[in-house]
Amino acid sequence: MSAVRKIGVLILGWLLVIVGIAALVLPGPGLLLLFLGLALLSTEYAWARTRVDPVKERALKAARDGVQSKTRIAVSIVSALAIVAVGVVWGLNPEIPEFGIFGPRLPFGGWGTGTTLVLSGLIALALVIESIRRFRPAKETSSPA
């Protein structure tokens, strides 16, 4: 592997791990990003190879559990669409209201933040759809014999 490619893999891998950890508590596909980052880092580090499978299993279990009932699916879809809506509103209204404990307006408004929220919501929606496709078997229709 060339030095440039190796550096690129390491930077992207660590970036995905860091964003994945943040997305475990923020809106976004945390386990998926963490898995992808570890998968990249596992090409260079033995410690990462030992952690890829457990994270992959947890991500698949979370995806499987998330589509086990129609209620969970509905909540997931509504939540993803709500994140998209907040991102659009945030982008259209760059002024964040002043909060007493924060003092002056925070510089988090506008399309920079709005776009990341929209993308997070769309990724979450795509993951819900993929989980439904992958983990919810199609209902078999029985025809009278």
Detail the topology: elements first, then pairings.
Layout: H1 3-23, H2 30-41, H3 46-66, H4 70-92, H5 111-135
Helix pairs in contact: 1-2, 2-3, 4-5
Structure, explained:
- There is one protein chain.
- The protein is mainly alpha-helical.
- The chain folds into 2 domains: 1-66, no CATH class; 68-139 and 141-145, no CATH class.
- The chain is 70% helix and 0% strand.
- It is built from 5 helices and no strands.
- The protein is flat, with a radius of gyration of 19 Å.
- The chain starts with a helix and ends in a 10-residue tail after the last helix.
- The mean pLDDT is 83.
Keywords summarizing the entry:
single chain; 145 residues; mainly alpha; 5 helices; flat
Domain count:
2
Shape: flat
The count of helical stretches stands at 5
Instruction: Tell me the structural class.
Output: mainly alpha
Report the biggest beta sheet as strand number plus sense, adding barrel if it closes: none
Distance between the termini: 61 Å
**Fraction in beta strands:** under 5%
Helix-strand string: HHHHH
* SS elements, strand count: 0
Estimated helix fraction = over 70%
User: Unreliable segments (pLDDT under 50, ≥5 consecutive)?
Assistant: none
What average pLDDT do the residues reach? 83
Specify Rg, calculated over alpha carbons: 19 Å
